[in-house]
Amino acid sequence: MASTSDIRNGLCIRYNHDIYKIIEFLHVKPGKGPAFVRTKLKSVTTGKVIDNTFSAGHKIEDVRVETHKFQFLYHDGEFFHFMNTEDYTQIRLLEAALDSPELMKEGEIVTVIINTEDNLPLSVEMPASVVLEVTATEPGVKGNTATNATKPATVETGATVNVPLFINEGDKIRVETEKGSYKERIKE
């Protein structure tokens, strides 16, 4: 058993007969009244995100997990297939277990969180950013750079990302996986 002082991003807990991963938390100590922890929990079975507030010192049941590196192989329409980089065993997961599947390209190395009680995969964590090639975008209008103007661009995985006007088809860009936003252009 853990308490609210043990809460951190990525911690898996058992709550309301389901397993949730903490994706965001904030310790709040108001001037009047008891302290509490405001959290955002993501269900590892359904992918649904809920907000919850725990009072300070509240006991939470944490789930013991292990992390392993897996390589993304392919997506067959229903399942995402991964291979363990150490022993080459393969697993398949539903889209709900993935944080941002639209930014994952074949060959990407991800971290899979596995429940140690039953050895079932709980969720997949993407790297902080990925490098993707722009496959389609409109040409930027010259002189339209007075503000931080952006345009939609389709990347090689099929996702749409807002990019600055100077990005062209064939450019490689770094995309933040947490927000799905443009970070920088990669020069080769």
Number of domains: 3
Which radius of gyration do the C-alpha atoms yield?
A: 20 Å
Sheet/helix structural class: mainly beta
Say how many strands there are. 16
Widest β-sheet, arrangement of strands: 1-6-2-3-4-5
- Percent of residues in helices comes to under 10%
Can you offer a commentary on this structure?
The chain folds into 3 domains: 2-62, SH3 type barrels; 65-125, OB fold (Dihydrolipoamide Acetyltransferase, E2P) (Beta Barrel), CATH 2.40.50; 129-186, OB fold (Dihydrolipoamide Acetyltransferase, E2P) (Beta Barrel). The chain has strands at 2-3, 12-15, 18-28, 36-43, 49-55, 59-62, 65-75, 79-84, 90-94, 109-115, 121-125, 129-137, 150-155, 160-164, 172-176, 181-186. The chain is mostly beta strands. The protein has no helices and 16 strands. The strands form 3 sheets. It has a 6-stranded antiparallel β-sheet with strand order 1-6-2-3-4-5, with no helix packed on it.
